[in-house]
Amino acid sequence: MEPLHGPATYEHEPPRHWALKINSKEPFNAEPPACELVDSYITSVDMFYKRNHGPIPVLENYSLFRLKVGGLAPNHCSLSMDEIKQLPKHTVVATLQCAGNRRTAMSLSRKVKGVGWDISALGNGVWSGARLSDVLNMVGIPNYTKVSSCGGKHVEFVSVDKCKEENGGPYKGSIPLLQATSPDADVILAYEMNGEELNRDHGYPLRVVVPGVIGARSVKWLKSIDIIAEECQGFFMQKDYKMFPPSVTWDNINWGSRRPLMDFPIQCAICRPEDGAYLEEGSKVTVQGYALSGGGRGIERIDVSVDGGKTWIEAKLGQGLKSGHGYIPDDDDHRDKWAWVLWELSVQISSPTDILAKAVDSAANVQPESVESIWNLRGVLNNSWHKVHVNIIPKQLHSNL
């Protein structure tokens, strides 16, 4: 497999959109302006956040690509891209979100370690490819299997990505075998994003998409799939992306005391107006944002306050996937349960104030009010109430401008 890829250097990075906010150049990590997120239910490829741990791989010979599937599977196989595309094509609408989304706000409470993401380290995409469960069927593992006949309990995904955290080795991650073999979980080996071939930034030619789970488990540039007895022992499963209480510091951390993060919690953010915006006194303003919850839990409601949390108004939820996305088959049985909802609320604001937003999901999970209560040294899973402050331009002053 390795000879199929060119040198992993930053000299061969793909072009990116000029509007992205770059949080680190090498490796490249960037997010779109928040206002771009609420312009479309489906996030464009250009505006989809970019999360990397090393240089973007360069595939030099597509025709020789082979995906190896083995480990503790009863049988092993090696599949070309043509063979993968001959399997039934499945399309799923799913939001991918970095576990570090909204980390910058958490660091304002106390300093945390990690890329300084604002509120746009996520995007909602239309992903198409082969179901992982269909591929596992080919190596002798039936649907809804918790433990394989050879003792496998987890499915490990291995990339060609080279990471300094893995001492120059490949990026790896895993999910439980039961989740991998369940067609209901909609885990796919994706080769298309938004109706087009995956580009290099998003995993060309093949990636895993694990809906409802933190983005770290949706491994890009997939090289092999292994059935293993225990969860993946890679750095990003065992020494990162874990949730610790506020009392844990770098001096007393015990990585083995916590499980790797999987489902992301309920999340909500305000994308318009932006923090610090100036509004005309008494004008109608449309507050817009996104909300999502992990594990297939839908959003029940969004509560918005325009008086700093004294009173709350329920926002209007978007209608989900709109018509006009021709790359989604009309007869495809896709579900929006893995996707965000966009919401809005039109209100009149007459004085400087804090606008707050919080969400409730279908399991009645609610967001915590304070970031301090969920602070952790890695700055992951900040899902506290989101707040933006708006200023007011008096009508008389505005008319003189």
Q: What is the element layout, followed by pairings?
A:
Blueprint: E1 21-24, E2 29-31, H1 34-37, E3 67-71, E4 77-79, H2 81-86, E5 89-97, H3 103-107, E6 122-131, H4 132-138, E7 154-162, E8 170-176, H5 177-180, E9 188-193, E10 196-197, E11 207-209, E12 222-228, H6 235-238, E13 267-272, E14 277-280, E15 283-292, E16 299-305, E17 313-314, E18 316-317, E19 341-349, E20 353-361, E21 386-393, H7 395-400
Parallel strand pairs: 3-12, 14-21
Antiparallel strand pairs: 1-2, 3-4, 5-6, 6-9, 7-8, 7-12, 9-10, 9-11, 13-15, 15-19, 16-17, 16-20, 18-19, 20-21
Fold-level CATH name of the largest domain = Sulfite Oxidase, Chain A, domain 2
CATH class of the largest domain: Alpha Beta
Ranges with pLDDT <50 over ≥5 residues?
330-334
Order of helices and strands: EEHEEHEHEHEEHEEEEHEEEEEEEEEH
Into which percent range does the helicity of residues fall? Answer: under 10%
Distance between the termini: 64 Å
Strand content: 25-35%
Report the CATH superfamily of the largest domain: Oxidoreductase, molybdopterin-binding domain
The average pLDDT value, as a whole number, equals 93
Q: What's the total count of β strands?
A: 21
Oligomer state equals single chain
Domains, number:
2
Biggest beta sheet summary: 5 strands, mixed
Number of helices: 7
Name given to the CATH architecture of the largest domain? Alpha-Beta Complex
Radius of gyration: 22 Å
Inertia-based shape: globular
Provide the spatial order of strands within the biggest beta sheet: 4-3-12-7-8
